[in-house]
Write a structure and sequence with these properties.
Helices cover 52% and strands 7% of the residues. By secondary structure, the protein is α/β, with parallel strands linked by helices. It has a single domain, classed as Rossmann fold, CATH 3.40.50.620. It has a five-stranded parallel beta sheet with strand order 3-2-1-4-5, with helices on both faces. Helix 3 (76-88) crosses helix 10. The radius of gyration is 21 Å and the shape is globular. Bound molecules: zinc ion. Zinc ion (ZN) binds next to helix 1.
């Protein structure tokens, strides 16, 4: 049976929550186009907004070793953030890199080059592998599309931790509206939800989370309200063209491509390129490409042609399966068994929403619940 595709972008009914209007145009591109003009870059006074922001970051950083924190995965977005922040804006960042045990050799080489060429200090957070492996395997056994959430959550927590340690007020993020706005929540949910992460670890894991960097509501409140640390979506203020960014970092920083968004991690490549499409029917490239179509940097036809290619080369799959099973310390048969489990979702497990909602006193908790809901929604896109 064919799946209904939006007439404007390339999102389709594999997103269970998609809504089409009578012209066959989906809710994703409709809201993208509605919200685009609200971005700071399209504000009539956009250059002032950017220079005020940069001046504030510089002022807040006076007398400190750094004025901002940046995450550095070695992917296009974070690499370009490092370039812009240091070379164009003249800021003094400390870069935070996460070693979760899955970084490809190429990504390690890219990060080394970036740091050297831009002369930036680097802090590498090495996750406790036994603990992290157990958590990742727990997520895989839970059979949800959310297996990348432990990594995303740990990165966010580490960025705040480092900002707090050096008394830095600004974390500059590569997350941006133009290339990342469209991504259905059903395809990956719970980035900011410590309750969910802890819950799956308890249900499916064998190890206590003792050292895993995490953010609960209290920590968030402390970092944001008490320490005054904010997340700056730089590319909502600064013109960002993905193709141009790629060209610049290739030329200036000798950056090498991984062949897919977030493929700098071998696990991401396997999960996003193989498990999500085959087990859940979710192909994240549809979101990535739809953003580019809506931003008018790629035609719909080009995006559709791109989607005709497989998310990863089929020949790579056996090697990746073998690699992943070995890293998880399970045999390939067990991995296949886990992959065949019936798909489940965020809503099927303990999480911040149903925990609050199912309390007997939910009537009285309603305003608190609403506040949390909005708060969680706001932060769920931040890593
Ligand atoms: Zn659409």
């Amino acid at each position: 049976m064919s799946v209904k595709i939006c007439n404007f972008c390339v999102m389709d009914a594999t997103d269970p929550d998609i809504v089409f209007d009578d012209k066959g145009i989906c809710n994703h591109c409709t809201s993208y186009i509605e919200d685009l003009p609200k971005l700071p870059i399209f504000h009539p006074d956009s250059s002032n907004l950017l220079s005020n922001l940069i001046n504030k970051i510089k002022k807040d950083g006076q007398g400190k070793p750094y004025d901002c924190v940046i995450g550095l995965s070695g992917g296009v977005d974070s690499t370009y953030v490092a370039y812009v922040v240091k070379k164009i804006l003249g800021l003094r960042p400390i870069a935070v890199h996460m070693d979760n045990g899955w970084n490809s050799e190429l990504s390690v080489k890219n990060v080394e080059n970036i740091i050297k060429k831009l002369d930036i200090d680097l802090f590498t957070k090495i996750l406790d592998w036994d603990e992290f492996r157990d958590l990742q395997l727990a997520f895989l056994c839970a059979s949800t599309p959310d297996s990348e959430i432990p990594t995303d959550h740990a990165i966010g927590a580490t960025l705040y931790e480092i900002a707090s340690k050096y008394n830095i007020k600004h974390i500059i993020s590569g997350a941006n509206f133009l290339t990342e706005r469209i991504m259905p929540p059903a395809w990956s949910q719970g980035h900011g939800d410590w309750r969910y992460i802890k819950g799956l670890s308890k249900l499916f894991g064998n190890k206590k989370l003792k050292t895993f960097p995490h953010l609960n509501a209290l920590k968030r409140f402390y970092y944001r309200r008490i320490r005054g640390i904010s997340m700056v979506p730089l590319f909502d203020f600064f013109k960002f063209n993905l193709a141009q960014a790629r060209g610049i970092i290739q030329k200036e920083l000798e950056w090498k491509d991984y062949g897919g968004k977030h493929y700098e991690s071998i696990y991401t490549k396997f999960f996003q390129g193989y498990i999500l499409p085959t087990k859940f029917g979710f192909d994240k490239r549809k979101g990535h490409l739809s953003n580019l179509v809506c931003a008018d940097v790629l035609s719909r036809i080009e995006a559709l042609n791109e989607l005709k290619k497989p998310p990863i080369e089929e020949a790579e799959v056996p090697y990746l399966k073998q690699y992943v099973a070995k890293k998880f310390n399970i045999d390939e048969q067990r991995l296949e068994q886990i992959l065949k489990e019936k798909p489940k979702f965020y809503r099927d497990y303990p999480n911040i929403y149903n925990t609050l909602w199912h309390k007997k006193s939910r009537k009285y908790l309603k305003p608190v619940y609403r506040y949390f809901l909005n708060f969680m929604k706001k932060i769920s896109n931040e890593h």
